Amino acid sequence: MTLALFALGVYTAATGSGLACQAQWPLCSDQLIPALTVNPDFIEWFHRVWAMVTGFLIIGVAGWAWLDGRDRRTRLAATLAVVILPLQITVGAVTVTVGGLVPGGYTVSTHAAHLIVALAIFTLLGFATIWGGGRGSPRLLRAAVGIAAVGIVASAVFSRAVPFVTYSPGAQAGFYATGLAGHLGLVATVAYATEAVRTGYAGLDRSTAKTVRLLAAGSMAALVGTLLLGRDLVLYTAFWQRLNLVALGVAAALAIGAAWAIRGLGAEGTTAGPVRGD
C-alpha cells in the first residue's frame, strides 16, 4: 500500500493534479467527494483517500507489533513510522495549499521534505515487516539481493537519466515503483546480512556477510540519490543528468556486486557444489 501510494503521489504531482481541488485540503473544490470521473480533482482526491487508508494501516502495523509481542526492534521501527506520519500528512497538506492556507506552500523545500519523509516511513515499514517475519535464511538473503538488483535495473528503463522512454507521468510512477522495489530489496539485504554477521548462516562466513551489507548500504545511498533526482528538485541540466546516471550506475553495480558475493550460497545455506554422476 505504501509503495503504491508513493507511485500514485508521483503520478498526481506529475500530472499537475496536486494543485487541483482549488488548493483546498481536506475538501476538494468545496466538496468532500468530487465528481467520480478521471480528471485532476479526482486524481488528487483518490490520492488523498489512498493515503488515508494507508495511514490507518500503518497505525495498525504498529499496534500489531506491540499486541503480538514482537521484538523490540520491530516495535521501534513500526512505532517510528507512526510518529513521523503526522509530519508527512502536514507537509502533504502544505504542498497543495499554494493559494489557500499557506501561500507559496508548493515549493522545492516542501516538495523535497514530502519525498524524504515518505521514504523514511517506507524504509521503517520495510524493516518492521522483515524483522517481524522471523529469522532470515540464506534463501531469503538471495531473494532480497535479487529483488534489489532487478528493481534497480528495471528503474533505469523509466529513469529520466536514461532516455529509453519519455519521462511522462506514467513513466515517473513506473520509475518510483521499480526503484522502491529495489530499495526494499536493499533494506532486506541489509537486515538479513546483519543477522548473518551476528548469528551466521551455514555456508556464509561473517566476512562475506559484512561485505554484502556494505555493498547493499552503498547501493541504497546511491539509489536514494536517484529517487531524489527523479523529481523536480533541481533545474535538470546536463550536469544533473550525468550525476543521476552515475548514481544509478553505482546503485546497480553495488547491488550486482552483492549478488555476486553470495553466488555460491545454496538454497539451504550450503555452498553449491558440482553434481557428480556414478
Description:
This protein is mainly alpha-helical and 278 residues long. Helices cover 68% and strands 0% of the residues. The chain contains nine helices and no strands. Helix 1 packs antiparallel against helix 7, helix 6 packs antiparallel against helix 9 and helix 7 runs antiparallel to helix 8. The longest helix is centred in the middle third of the chain and has 31 residues. The protein is globular. The C terminus is likely disordered. Keywords: Cell membrane, Disulfide bond, Heme biosynthesis, Iron, Membrane, Metal-binding, Oxidoreductase, Transmembrane, Transmembrane helix.
Q: Which class do the helix and strand fractions yield?
A: mainly alpha
Anisotropy-based shape: globular
Count of β-strands: 0
Main sheet, how many strands, which sense, barrel? none
Tally of helical runs:
9
The amount of helix comes to 55-70%
What is the typical, i.e. mean, pLDDT? 86
What is the percentage of strand-forming residues? under 5%
Q: CA-to-CA gap between the ends?
A: 52 Å
Provide the low-confidence segments as ranges.
267-278
Q: Radius of gyration, Cα only, in angstroms?
A: 21 Å
**SSE pattern, N- to C-terminal:** HHHHHHHHH
Number of domains: 2
Tags for this entry?
mainly alpha, single chain, 278 residues, disulfide bond, disordered C terminus, COX15/CtaA_HemeA_synthase, 2 domains, transmembrane, oxidoreductase, Four Helix Bundle (Hemerythrin (Met), subunit A), metal ion binding
Detail the topology: elements first, then pairings.
Layout: H1 2-14, H2 40-67, H3 72-83, H4 85-95, H5 108-132, H6 138-158, H7 169-199, H8 206-229, H9 238-261
Helix pairs in contact: 1-2, 1-7, 2-3, 3-5, 4-5, 5-7, 6-7, 6-9, 7-8, 8-9
Transmembrane segments: 46-67, 79-106, 112-133, 140-161, 173-193, 214-239, 245-262
Keywords: Cell membrane, Disulfide bond, Heme biosynthesis, Iron, Membrane, Metal-binding, Oxidoreductase, Transmembrane, Transmembrane helix
GO cellular component, one term: membrane
